[in-house]
Amino acid sequence: MSPPPPSPARFDIDMIVRDRRDLVTPVMSSASSDTGTILNAQEQYLTTILERTETNTLETLERIRRAKAQAQREAQVRRCSLSQKKKKEREMVQCMCIKKHS
Fold this sequence. Notes:
This protein is an all-alpha fold and 102 residues long. 90% of the residues lie in helices and 0% in strands. The chain is built from two helices and no strands.
């Protein structure tokens, strides 16, 4: 019994590999290795840029969050100060009114 014929896709890949094996020379192999090295270096460089961008984005978002929180605290303090000032003004007016009527 003979083995079943290879599937068409696998057969095509095997044929391409077999055909190119005869064409590969040491210079081509070296060039292919250099290309792989260059591609790996580019991938590492781009990954580094992406990681830095992500870090910078997160740091910027954190700075914005802190600035907003600080602004809210300051606004709250101003509102408190204003309401205390108005309260004191009301008390003074009431005291003046009581003094006038006494």
